Request: fold
Amino acid sequence: MDASFSSAPTAASSRGMAHHSNRGASVGNWRTPAKILLPVRAVFGGKIALDPASASDNPTDAEVFFTHNGLEQSWEGHRNIFCNPPFPKTVNAVTQS
Reply:
């Protein structure tokens, strides 16, 4: 399995997707707004343990994050998981499951 994986604060592999704001014209990467992440972190006790669909700069500041093939990696052993999947391919795959 070829996966980009990292534990924060070490930088993840650059083999992930292009990194753009969800306000731009980019397709395939939608960053979660801070107004969403703040309450998520509050519910999770201050820290996101795993972000399986992250960008290489770890915008969710997760302890562990995947930048490539996150749906194919193990999510076990993490106390909490936050996933804002890259659109639209992942959403289609998840909704068809």
Notes: The longest strand covers residues 64-68. The beta strands are 4-7, 50-51, 64-68. The longest helix spans residues 34-43. Residues 72 and 87 are 16 Å apart (CA to CA).
